[in-house]
Every structure is written in structure tokens, then in C-alpha cells.
Amino acid sequence: MFKKIKNFFKEVKIELKKVVFPSREEVIGSTKVVLVLVLIVAVFLGLIDLVLSKLVGMVVK
Question: Is the confidence at residue 61, as pLDDT, over 90?
Fold first, then answer.
């Protein structure tokens, strides 16, 4: 049992050595892209919500 656990953590350590972590600049660039896209989608959905609520309000009247 303990041998399997020890082997598992040994393999985890080997796999972690293969990981290439992004640089600070890459993380900042990716974060900017995500924030801009979230803002665009939020504005789009807000406009759609506004238009649909106006249409529903006109139909209900």
C-alpha cells in the first residue's frame, strides 16, 4: 500500500518537471484578453436584456 503511494508521488514529481509555466508577461496578456472579452459579453448580454425587457413591457401593456 505505502509502496503504491510512494510510487504515485514519485510519478507526480516527474510529471511536474515536464510542466512549462507561463511567464509573467504571458499571464498578464492572457488576463487582459479575458477581461476584455468578459466586458464585451457583459455589454452584449445587457443590451439584449434591455431590448427584450422593453419588448415584453410593450406586449404586456
Answer: no
Please, how many CA atoms are within 13 Å of residue 5, restricted to the half-sphere of its CB?
A: 2
Contact (CB, 8 A) for 22 and 30? yes
pLDDT tens, residue by residue, 31-48: 999 999 999 999 999 999
State the Cα–Cα distance between residues 44 and 50, nearest whole angstrom: 10
CA distance 61 to 47: 21
Residues 6+ apart with CB under 8 A from 30: 22
**Distance between CA atoms of residues 2 and 52, nearest Å:** 61
Helix (H, G, I), strand (E, B) or coil at 41: helix
Mean pLDDT (whole number) for 21-32: 97
